[in-house]
Design a protein that fits this description.
By secondary structure, the protein is of the alpha+beta class. Helices cover about 15% and strands about 20% of the residues. It is built from 14 helices and 29 strands.
Length: about 725
């Protein structure tokens, strides 16, 4: 019945077109090696199309029979359909964080399911996949579901003005977004930093703490829940006859109708594609489907035998069809690489009475995998993944290779011949040949993060789940979480469905995987990483090099245990800092507070006691983290920031202090020993305008002790002490 419904949709997309767009012409002649650098005119457009909560088994090309997805199937038939792809996390925010940054979400505090008024989780100085494309000359867009926070400060956004931090600050030229999820306020789209169709007669206020006087809520006014009733939660503000999470007031004509969400997202996507058909573009396109509340357009409701959840799958498939048709009619289908995937696994009852659970019948949303959304079990992160690129992929295939979303940045970099800056997208690896179906090389391992933030380590054959707290089954969603206080090991080669925990009989395997997880978890930066990464994020400009960072506004604050000055800065390779509690290593300040920079003067400069930077107001930030054993801290007084050495009391603060001074444009007078391991200057050569370590073959960067980058030019004379950075460690190099 619903098949016929799609008869108007394109089938042309599956046929490799003879499109003579000049950008495409040269393509067939190129004998591409994987990872090859494409020349400018041939670089494909890239669309990363991500569904929300779409399970592995929810598409007919992945085995669904109670729902049919002909548009996705057609793209899969002519592309590479992966059977073992994993999102990085089993919920949206952390999963998306990893897609956009190439960094495991477990490394970053504040990546749990975000509220609708969360501040932007990815900070402007952090490198993203959008930076990769934008720096390579692509136009970039983020359209649809966002769920990664907006504005510089959570809860402080003025929704009636322009937001200060937006996806423009992390590489996206254009955005049209739902701030969080359809079930979270504010229920409006944000376009280019402002509420789309903002209605001045109905100013918007948002709170996740308390209701606004006189506003109805799902809890108090169930009679107003005309379109969907909650099954659990979702009983705060009511918008469009549906209860939401969080409170909002106003909105007027800017408020979305759930029935129109997909059409709005489609329209903006097609606009963006049409506007950029002459130049390469990258579109991060995230549907609202099939997340709750599921309330698709009138023409889809009632079309599937599985109720609204099935209808939402049909609407998702329709979206894919519309994108495909648009590519065709714009003449750019041939040279567009289209990826279709999902952010995490499936859930039936996720808080609304939409009958998903009662009407599911024999349908298996998770396919062969156990668990679902939120789980540590495989279904949490096992997602559909389809790669289609007519110009390059000539034959449809199914690939069983083990792959992960974490690799998009490095893989796309190889695809377009761009380079990921040192230290950025740290966890991302290039698997282009696998993604294009040229081979089936597995990733060595895949990391999966459950909602409880516990990790699993998957190899092709095994799955280790570390112990984590929480119930084995969620009472409200009915999902098996895979959480257990004991370690678990499953032989995936034997069965995809994790039913038999072989931890006891296979201790050696389990221990090995557990150890790998431990290794991976090591902070990227402790004693051995470099603070200069901060400045290596390209395309930002001085605003971000000098006015953001952790440590700001910490004056007088106390750590949760009530002690003052318990902060410790741990620099991460993305250039941000985790501020952790020195005593127990828990996180304290994930989001720094913005304070304008003022003049800073150095005073006492005894390295072993730390330096004091005296400001005549507030300091913009303390960037510096010292290499080696030391960390920096500042004392609690507002005008005098003491940089302490928590290491062994030696003079290891010197490099960091000098760097802080440099960034703050302050005066400094002393230098003394730099306590770092040494790399021989003989190991360093200049190749293609890069410094390379001749032994490892890796690119390295060289900085002066006060943080200036040394250009890699042959003939550039180096003399004295420099700081050498590779992706993992910093050392000093002494040129005689
Ligand atoms: C949960 C919500 C669920 C969904 C999820 C986020 C309740 C009871 N449940 O807290 O409905 O919104 O968060 O989903 O509020 S995700 O796909 O965006 O991660
Ligand atoms: Ca999701």
């Amino acid at each position: 019945m619903w098949n016929g419904f799609f008869s108007h949709l394109p089938m042309k997309f599956q046929i490799i077109s003879n499109n003579m767009n000049p950008r495409n012409i040269l393509f067939p002649c190129l004998g591409f090696a994987a990872g090859a650098v494409a020349q400018d005119e041939q670089r494909p457009n890239v669309i990363f199309l991500m569904a929300d909560d779409l399970g592995y088994g929810d598409l007919s090309c992945y085995g669904a029979t109670r729902v049919s997805t002909p548009n996705v199937d057609s793209i899969a038939r002519n592309g590479i359909r992966f059977t073992d792809c994993h999102a990085v996390a089993s919920t949206s925010t952390p999963s998306r964080y990893s897609v956009l940054t190439g960094e495991y979400c477990f490394r970053r505090h504040g990546t749990d399911i975000a509220a609708g008024n969360a501040g932007m989780i990815i900070k402007p100085e952090q490198y993203t996949v959008a930076d990769l494309f934008r720096n390579a000359g692509y136009r970039t867009a983020a359209i649809g579901k966002w769920h990664l926070g907006l504005g510089s400060e959570g809860g402080k956004q003025d929704w009636n003005a322009e937001l200060d931090w937006t996806p423009r600050d992390i590489g996206f030229d254009y955005h049209y977004l739902m701030a969080a999820t359809a079930d979270r306020v504010p229920c409006v789209f944000i376009e280019q930093g402002r509420v789309a169709n903002h209605d001045p007669s109905a100013p918007i206020y948002v709170s996740y703490e308390k209701n606004f006087d006189g506003e109805p809520t799902g809890a108090n006014n169930p009679e107003l829940l005309t379109k969907q009733k909650s099954s659990h939660g979702h009983n705060n503000s009511i918008v469009n006859g549906i209860g939401r999470i969080g409170f909002m007031k106003g909105g007027g004509k800017a408020l979305w109708r759930d029935e129109d969400l997909a059409d709005s997202i489609i329209a903006k996507s097609i606009n963006f594609m049409a506007e950029n058909k002459e130049n390469p573009f990258f579109m991060y396109l995230c549907t609202n489907d099939i997340h709750v509340p599921r309330y698709p357009a009138d023409r889809f409701r009632g079309q599937s035998p599985m109720g609204l959840r099935g209808d939402a799958i049909l609407q998702f498939d329709y979206t894919v069809g519309r994108i495909a048709t648009a590519l065709d009619s714009l003449g750019i289908a041939d040279n567009t690489l289209l990826i279709i995937t999902s952010d995490n696994g499936p859930v039936l009852d996720d808080g609304y009475q939409d009958k998903a659970a009662t009407l599911v019948g024999t349908h298996k949303p998770a396919g062969p995998w156990r668990g679902g959304k939120y789980s540590a079990f495989e279904a949490g992160t096992a997602v559909p993944f389809i790669v289609n690129w007519p110009a390059r992929i000539k034959e449809g295939k199914v690939s069983e290779a083990l792959i992960s979303h974490i690799d998009d940045i490095a893989t796309f970099a190889a695809l377009i011949g761009a380079e990921v800056p040192l230290g950025a997208a740290y966890d991302s690896q290039n698997h282009l040949s696998t993604w294009l179906g040229e081979d089936e090389t597995d990733r060595d391992f895949v990391v999966e993060m459950a909602q409880a933030r516990g990790l699993s380590y998957r190899t092709k054959d095994w799955k280790y789940i570390e112990p984590m707290p929480g119930n084995a089954k969620q009472s409200q969603t009915g999902i098996e979480t895979g959480y257990s206080s004991s370690p678990q090991l499953y032989n995936i080669a034997k069965s995809k469905y994790e039913s038999s925990n072989v931890y006891s009989s296979q201790r050696a395997v389990a221990n090995e995987l557990a150890q790998k997880l431990t290794d991976l978890r090591q902070p990227l930066v402790s004693g051995d990483t470099c603070f200069w990464y901060h400045l290596l994020t390209p395309g930002r400009g001085p605003r971000y090099a000098t006015s953001t960072g952790a440590g700001k506004g910490m004056t007088g604050k106390t750590s949760p245990d009530g002690k003052k000055s318990q902060w410790k800065f741990v620099l991460r390779t993305d250039g941000n800092y985790d501020i952790v509690n020195r005593a127990d290593a828990s996180f304290i300040v994930p989001n720094a507070v913005q304070i304008p920079a003022l003049q800073i003067k150095t005073s006492a400069t005894s390295p072993s006691n730390g330096w004091t930077l005296t400001t005549n107001g507030n300091m913009s930030c303390l960037y510096a983290v010292v290499s080696g054993k030391a960390q920096l801290n500042q004392a609690e007084q507002s005008n005098s920031w003491k940089i302490l050495n928590w290491g062994d009391g030696t003079n290891t603060t010197d490099v960091g202090c000098r760097y802080a001074v440099h960034l703050a444009d302050a005066e400094s007078t002393t230098t003394s020993g730099i306590d770092l391991p040494e790399t021989s200057s003989d190991e360093i050569a200049v190749r293609d305008n890069h410094f390379v370590n001749k032994i490892s073959g890796k690119t390295v960067e060289i900085f002066t002790v006060d943080g200036r980058r040394v250009p890699a030019q042959t003939g550039h004379r180096l003399r004295g002490v420099y700081i050498l950075c590779d992706a993992r460690k910093i050392s000093k190099v002494v040129y005689p």
